[in-house]
Design goal:
20% strand; alpha/beta; 38% helix; 11 helices
């Protein structure tokens, strides 16, 4: 695996790379990230697989954990080599933002100011801006993302579609531990007691999803029961709700593809998860 720290070096590689599959990350890699890397060539038949590690300050809000975000480059590098990644782009902040970033991608508030966006103002503006910048640098034919960050996936799909970027977005199912917990870099913040409790979020989402599959039309009742159960076990939920998959708006018609989403704090750690219905 070749490692590049400059935009110029990465672009020089791209000129000879053929069809490219790209999986951007912020590092501190877990099995979910590695599943994206392993799937990149298998699902796309790409000639070259490129990944990136960049902790993007723009998507962290006030009081969030930018400085504490784990930097585990050596372990990440070894895992990416084993996963068959050909090139790794590891820019510094100065390389990515040589001057203050004054031009930004501002997603439609209908998609970016609800759910996660309501609790993390400006988050998706930062995500969309850095991803578009990485897309312009790497110029991939395919880009792979996990479904755990479901709202992020919707925002990026819409960005690619509306800006007519020649990139196919490929979404992979969430990778879970044996007890159902969604793989996340934030899981490392959990204490042993919190880690034992953490799978409850997925279990409550599963109960709501099953109720919807069984024909429950009033989604507010199973969601309220699930929220109460989380609170009873010490969680501090931000939301647990059923939305349309296409745009994360409140369902209006029977038979629409749905997703149940949740975000809640366990101790000091904020976890998110979802299940497609």
């Amino acid at each position: 695996m070749h490692i590049h720290t400059s935009i110029a070096a990465l672009r020089a590689v791209r000129a000879q790379a053929g069809r490219v599959a790209f999986a951007p990350t912020m590092g501190n890699l877990h099995d979910g990230h590695i599943a994206l890397m392993r799937a990149a060539r298998r699902l796309t038949n790409a000639d070259t697989v490129i990944s990136s590690i960049f902790v993007n300050r723009l998507q962290f809000g006030q009081g969030e954990d930018f400085d504490k975000y784990p930097r585990t480059f050596e372990a990440d590098r070894e895992r990416l080599v084993a996963a068959g990644v050909d090139h790794l782009f590891v820019p510094t902040e100065t390389e990515m933002y040589p001057q203050p970033q004054r031009y930004h991608v501002t997603p439609d508030p209908e998609h970016a100011s609800i759910l996660e966006g309501a609790f993390r103002p400006g988050h998706f503006r930062g995500v969309a801006t850095v991803v578009l910048k990485l897309f312009n640098i790497v110029q991939p034919d395919f880009a792979l993302f996990g479904k755990k960050d479901y709202q992020q996936l919707i925002v990026l799909k819409n960005m690619v579609n509306e800006l007519a970027l020649p990139i196919e977005i490929i979404a992979l199912d969430t990778i879970r531990t044996r007890d159902g917990l969604a793989q996340s870099s934030r899981n490392n913040y959990l204490s042993p007691i919190e880690r034992a409790e953490a799978p409850r979020l997925y279990r409550q989402l599963s109960i709501v999803a099953e109720a919807v599959r069984n024909g429950v039309c009033d989604f507010t009742r199973p969601c309220a029961v699930a929220l109460a159960e989380l609170e009873r076990h010490g969680w501090r939920p931000d939301y647990l709700t059923v939305r349309r998959r296409a745009d994360l708006q409140v369902p209006e018609q029977p038979g629409e593809p749905l997703v149940v989403l949740a975000a809640a704090r366990l101790g000091t750690t904020r976890l998110i998860d979802n299940i497609e219905i």
